Amino acid sequence: MSEIDIDLEKRRFLTRTTLALGAVGAGMAAVPFVSYLKPGAGALEAAAPIDVDVSKLEDGQLIRVEWRGQPIWVLKRTEEMLETLTKIEPLLRDPDSDESVQPESCKNRYRSIKPEIFVAVGICTHLGCSPTYRPEVAPPDLGKNWLGGFFCPCHGSRFDLAGRVYKKVPAPTNLVVPPYRYVTDTHIVVGEEQQEAV
């Protein structure tokens, strides 16, 4: 072997070694950045399903809980409230909830698994304000056709007691119904789908 061959072998060895060490160093430097992108314990906890006890809900009462940083409404509707849902269907934009977000188990007139308990994300589908719960019938500020529901004070969107949006208001779709399921008759878990009975 000549000196030129030896120098070329050395050069190849040094080049490969440098590249290998550079790759290892880059990988080690990337570890903190990649681990930074993983969600923290707080984020995982916020996305976790939440338990809601509906046993103490009184007729017509609405409670608010938080899931994924969003307000979740749980409303116990009375028989009278449920009866209003058919009366106002001609005034609604999407009475059958064909264009709206809800689990398949809630795609019905009541938009709920059980008619008396309504669960919804308490955010208007227009620009993200939080509507107010207005259960009274025909108040002066909402008119004679108002049979109870949710009113968004930001831009005037109206929703019935099943979260279905009225016609001629800014909100384009019904309120979102999150995934939820019943564990018992009085205990629901928001954030998990209801399993269909086999």
List the helices and strands and how they pair.
Layout: H1 3-37, H2 41-47, E1 50-53, E2 62-67, E3 70-76, H3 79-87, E4 117-121, E5 132-134, E6 149-151, E7 158-159, E8 180-184, E9 187-190
Brief overview:
With 198 residues, the chain is an alpha+beta fold.
Describe the structure.
This protein is an alpha+beta fold and 198 residues long. It has 2 domains: 1-38; 46-190, Rieske Iron-sulfur Protein, CATH 2.102.10. It is 26% helix and 20% strand. The chain has helices spanning 3-37, 41-47, 79-87; strands at residues 50-53, 62-67, 70-76, 117-121, 132-134, 149-151, 158-159, 180-184, 187-190. Strands 1-9-8 form a 3-stranded antiparallel sheet, with no helix packed on it. Strands 2-3-4 form a 3-stranded antiparallel sheet, with no helix packed on it. The longest helix is centred in the first third of the chain and has 35 residues, at 3-37. The model has no long low-confidence stretch (mean pLDDT 87).
